[in-house]
Amino acid sequence: MKLLYDFFPVLLFFLVYKFYGAIPADVIHGINPLLPLTLTAGDHNDAIFLATAVAIVASFAQVGMFWLRHRRFETMHLVSLVLITLFGGATLFFHNPEFIKWKPTAINWLFAAAFLGSHFIGRKPLVERLMSHAITVPPVIWRRLNIGWIGFFFISGALNIWVAYQFSQEIWVDFKLFGLLGLSIVFIIGQAFYLARFMQESPSEEKQ
């Protein structure tokens, strides 16, 4: 469920893009004064611009709802919000979809850099800091897993930009949701199986 919640803005981006042609002209005309561009009802070339605007609003809503429920912010949500505002805002301002196509690559490579930096800064790799409260495995396994996350984020970012420039915009939008979400699910399942081989019992479990 958390993974789906994290992809909530991407899902709305996908739905608005795919069903843009079904949006009534009156709705499009009502939206136009709110955006720094002019959308044409039924013109599929404008779909990505409305989808981008919706994704920006959805990201703000995502951060706000998470804070209301947990009284704290999720780092990934905040980073995504900043990047979608920057890249999405540039897409709307310059009326150029190239900016929003780079957003998934930017966020993946930023996280790859953060996980890589944790190998040299601090006593624990980033993945251990995030997950050690829930499970216990030997330090060497945390470092291997951290390297795995670095590779995952780097490859995901590279795949995104490769699809964006080698295929049609329609295919890229599909990949942005199904491709990246599918890769995340496969990697997380693989991580779970890998960790299960090395998980140690907590002190409380050992006493029982």
Give the tags:
208 residues, mainly alpha, 2 domains, elongated, disordered C terminus
Written description of the protein model:
The protein is mostly helical and 208 residues long. It folds into two domains: 96 residues, no CATH class; 105 residues. It contains ten helices and no strands. α2 runs antiparallel to α4 and α2 runs antiparallel to α9. The radius of gyration is 20 Å and the shape is elongated.
Oligomeric form:
single chain
Nearest-integer average pLDDT: 89
How many discrete structural domains? 2
Number of helices: 10
The low-confidence runs, each spanning 5 or more residues with pLDDT under 50, are: 202-208
Distance between the termini: 32 Å
- How many beta-strand segments? 0
Return the string of H and E elements.
Answer: HHHHHHHHHH
Structural class: mainly alpha
Q: What is the overall silhouette?
A: elongated
Please indicate the percent range of residues in DSSP E strands (runs of 2 or more). under 5%
Sheet with the most strands, sense and barrel status: none
Question: Can you give the helix content as a percent range?
Answer: over 70%
Note the topology.
Elements: H1 2-6, H2 8-18, H3 25-31, H4 47-70, H5 75-94, H6 98-117, H7 126-131, H8 139-166, H9 169-196, H10 203-207
